[in-house]
Amino acid sequence: MNDEITAVVGHQLYSFDGRILEIFGNYPKRFHVRHMQLTVSDPDRKGRRTMVIDAVGVQYTSTFTADEWAKAPALAGLLAAVQSAIGG
Asked: Which residues contact 41 (CB under 8 A, 6 or more apart)?
């Protein structure tokens, strides 16, 4: 994968280049696919989804409302690409 994938959710920019997931916002974060696990929950009864990143020494959790998820269609594709890179 040579192309960068980006998604904006609220005030955060998610960027994935095939190896590094970066989350820009108040406190920028970087995760390498070799050192992380990523899970995204199914929507709960209110449509919220929770993303959990387990990396070396860190756990990052973010919850997306149904409205945020709907307004950021690129996010699902970005997270699927990250999952694929972790597994491959």
From this structure: 49, 50, 51
Helix (H) or strand (E) holding 43: none
Rounded Cα gap, residues 19 and 87, in angstroms? 12
Closest CA to 53 of 8, 22, 13: 22
* Contacts with 26 (C-beta within 8 Å, 6 or more apart), sequence order: 11
Which residues pair with residue 61 across a beta bridge? 52
pLDDT tens sequence across 29-76: 999 999 999 999 999 999 999 999 999 899 999 999 999 999 999 999
